[in-house]
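Hi F.,

I've been meaning to write this up properly since the lab meeting, where we talked about keeping a consistent format for the predictions we share between groups. The idea is simple: the sequence comes first, exactly as it goes in, then the structure tokens exactly as they come out, then a line or two of notes. No screenshots and no reformatting. I'm using this chain as the first example so we have something concrete to point to.
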Amino acid sequence: MSGNYHIEQIGKIIAIRFASPALVRDIIAVADEAAQFDKNTLRLWDFRKGLNLSSSDVVQIADRAKNISFPPSKIAILVSDKLAYGLARMYDVYRAQQNQEVRLFETEEEAIKWLKE
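Output, unedited:
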């Protein structure tokens, strides 16, 4: 585990939180680490501290995520600014898979409510 992120399990939700703007290496490392959890859990990615990514980094992350197979599930992404929102939307488009539903949120409460639906 990096000093820039931590993972916690809240019931069926795996929450990944970053302490500072996330870098491509951090996101890939935590995705591999989070993949070790129960495959039936839901994911909450908290990027409210920002994202320090290029568009090619987003493509790299999306390609890596496609190689981690999960049963049908939901992924909530928390963002707090327009740049992070745009990068997260780009990820959603590149990541698109039939068994994954991705939504972007500004508050954790909204994200958790949607994940639990």
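Notes:
The longest strand covers residues 5-10.
The CA atoms of residues 62 and 95 lie 5 Å apart.

If this format works for you, I'll send the rest the same way.

G.
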